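quick one, 142 residues, struct below
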Amino acid sequence: MSSLTESEPSLTFIVHPSSQTVSAGSHVTFKCSVSSHRKITYEWHHNNKTIRTDKQPRFNIRSDGSLRIAKTDLDDAGVYQCIAILTAKRSKIVRKKARSRTAKLTVEGKSLYLFRVGLYKLNFSDSLKDQTKVTSMKITDD
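---
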């Protein structure tokens, strides 16, 4: 007795993300695409953690698999990876996953955070110095 099973197609990346360097506050897009005649969903990882676009509105995973980050910040620097997911036609069961090559994002410049506490204004500034994040704070009474 033999059984027929539909062979699962392989997931082959035709576009891998590329490393990029941007200035803080600018937008960046990582491209990612898989060759498949089936519907593929994509997720992205930042430093090996899944990016949750519902909790990080500056991050947007587009239908073509690309990841767009709006108004980059120094905390966005790191390693990114695209994961392509093939699910069963009528269920949400994952049939196959494939990982792209990794890409590094370097964010140059400063981030500035302003807070007012009572009569005082606190300025926090993050900058990148020799690949080390430096945070400084200044308190003024204006």
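The chain has two domains: 12-108, 111-140.
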